[in-house]
Write a structure and sequence with these properties.
Distance between the termini: 25 Å
Bound molecules: zinc ion
Number of domains: 4
Helix content: 25-40%
Shape: elongated
Low-confidence stretches: 2-27, 148-174
């Protein structure tokens, strides 16, 4: 089974008010980096442009102020305000959110002005240090006019725009990817976010017009994958701020599809990872890693799927739309042919709503997977590299593979019961007598066969460590007493105590199904986060 929770409030509310002032500016100097007290700061993601405000085209200037704590002192800012000057005009804004900046961490504050070509900002941070001493720091940011104006040296302006982000001093191992940037134990703590939410909420973080949404980010170090174009940094940094206050819990990783129009222009998937780091000298204890990722192709020719259905005796009940069938074929298309013998004869049902709001369910007694409406959200939600629908179907297939040995034992048991009954009938017919006694030797043989079938049934184990338990009337599936020796549980233990998703915390069979799903759709992510589980799957289900 797999469940989705639709998250209503993905982002914590944030207000950053700015007074719009019409003005015309000529910069006296350019300053986009510096040091103030214990803080080193840098203005990044400089984005000057033109925008229509109240029917009038004006100059706009967006940027992000990144402040880095350098002395190992925790700071808490409770009041941030700014004043903007340019061309004899003045404006300002106030930011009242509480911002924590632990030792060696960063604070990312998005700013924007209307009506200035090259604004001079004074950003004042007021709060306390860890000994409760008041702190007030004023940061002067003199933004360069872009495109370059005569009189400003190309060198200085360029250097300030594309210079290395402040994160270069942050301490953690530098690298482009999750595997390169994080240690095994750091990755072992990560969970893949399995919440479902509408990703259309992300576009405003990239906007420069009135739809623009901003979110600050504090108490972390931000690392960008070098493959991400600089033009996207402002939006992604912004988005990270929103995510960290919502779905992206500490020690989790989330992949989102992005379709952002010009000027940012992106169409692809981005992975955000928010992680608590192992202690490192002079480094922030938390990091946000922003990477590009590959996504699973959902295109598979329908005929390939149909042929696969015919070859393996799969059944598709009515109710699947063409799009949904394509998703199903896409999942099956990712499963190597030689694994499929274990799930032959599987029925794929489609139903509207599960009483427990599940997205899908596998029943081993009927060997049926039922997918519900929640598995087919109207919006594109990701789980690792794949669409959430594909992940949910792969999850249910995981249960089917997990239960293979149990199902096989049950089938043999049914066969032996049938043989037993048949044997008795056969004897009756052969003897052609009234209520007859079966020959003791024949009865003994049948009874021995029946007991062997029961023993085999009780000896069978699912891959995640469950077994059949015989009650007077039926067999139930229970935790096996010897589950400690179970291969999957053992390797999961080697990878630490944190299940791969929140949902995987539910039970060992759900943990197995979640890992199976990742193994099918994003093996690279599984290998990076849980290397021992990955190795187990690679051995159990070789490609
Ligand atoms: Zn499940």
């Amino acid at each position: 089974m797999v469940r989705f929770s639709i998250e209503q409030s993905l982002f914590a509310a944030l207000s950053l008010a700015l007074i719009v002032v019409a003005g015309c500016a000529r910069p006296l100097y350019v300053q986009t980096a510096g040091t103030v007290g214990p803080l080193r700061w840098e203005a990044v993601d400089l984005e000057p442009g033109r925008r229509t405000v109240d029917g009038k085209e004006v100059d706009v200037y967006d940027f992000t102020l990144v402040v880095h704590e350098t002395r190992g002192v925790r700071m808490t800012f409770t009041n941030v305000w700014s004043t903007v000057y340019g061309g004899g005009w003045m404006g300002g804004g106030q930011h009242s959110e509480k911002l924590e900046v632990p030792p060696f961490c960063e604070l990312h504050l998005p700013f924007s002005s209307n009506g200035f070509k090259a604004p001079l900002w004074y950003v004042t941070l007021r709060g306390n240090d860890e000994e409760d001493r008041p702190v007030e720091l004023k940061i002067p940011v003199a933004l360069p006019p872009l495109p370059l104006q005569p009189g400003i040296s190309a060198e200085s302006a360029k250097g300030s725009v594309s210079g290395p982000a402040i994160t270069e001093h942050a301490g953690p191992a530098q690298g482009a990817s999750l595997s390169q940037s994080l240690t095994v134990s750091e990755r072992g703590r990560l969970q893949v976010v399995d919440d479902a939410f509408n990703p259309s909420v992300f576009s405003p973080f990239f906007a420069s017009d009135e739809t623009r949404k901003v979110a600050s980010l504090s108490g972390v170090t931000v690392i960008f994958d070098p493959a991400i174009p600089a033009a996207l940094h402002r939006g992604l940094r912004n988005m990270a701020g929103g995510l960290v206050s919502g779905s992206l819990r500490l020690n989790s990783t989330l992949t989102v599809p992005l379709e952002v129009a010009e000027p940012a222009a992106i169409s692809g998937t981005i992975r955000f990872t928010y992680v608590a780091l192992d202690p490192r000298p002079q480094a922030c204890a938390r990091m946000v890693l922003i990477e590009t990722t590959n996504s699973v192709s959902e295109a598979l020719q329908s005929w390939t799927g149909v042929a696969m259905f015919q070859q393996h005796g799969f059944h598709l009940t009515p109710g699947w739309t063409e799009r949904e069938q394509r998703a199903l074929y896409a999942v099956l298309g990712r499963i190597p042919e030689h694994w499929l013998s274990q799930i032959e004869g599987l029925t794929f049902k489609r139903d509207s709503i599960h009483p427990g709001n599940l997205a899908g369910e596998y029943r081993s007694d009927t060997h049926t997977i039922t997918m519900y409406d929640t598995a087919f959200p109207a919006f594109d939600v990701r789980f690792g590299a794949a669409n959430r629908t594909i992940a949910a179907i792969a999850h249910e297939l995981g249960h089917a593979f997990d239960a293979f040995a149990l199902r096989q034992a049950a089938e043999r048991y049914q066969t032996s019961l049938a043989k037993f009954a048949q044997g008795l009938d056969g004897y009756k017919q052969a003897s052609n007598s009234k209520p007859s006694r079966i020959a003791p030797a024949a009865e003994k043989l049948l009874e021995t066969q029946r007991i062997t079938a029961i023993r085999n049934m009780e000896a069978a184990r699912s891959l995640s460590g469950y077994r059949w338990y015989r009650t007077p009337v039926k067999f139930d599936v229970v935790e096996a007493e010897d589950a400690g020796a179970n291969g999957f549980r053992r390797v999961a233990g080697l990878d630490g105590s944190i299940p791969i998703t929140k949902y995987a915390e539910k039970s060992w069979s759900e943990y197995f199904a979640e890992c199976f799903s990742l193994y099918v759709i994003d093996a690279e992510l599984l290998e990076s986060l849980r290397p021992n589980i990955y190795a187990y799957f690679a051995k159990q289900f070789p490609r």
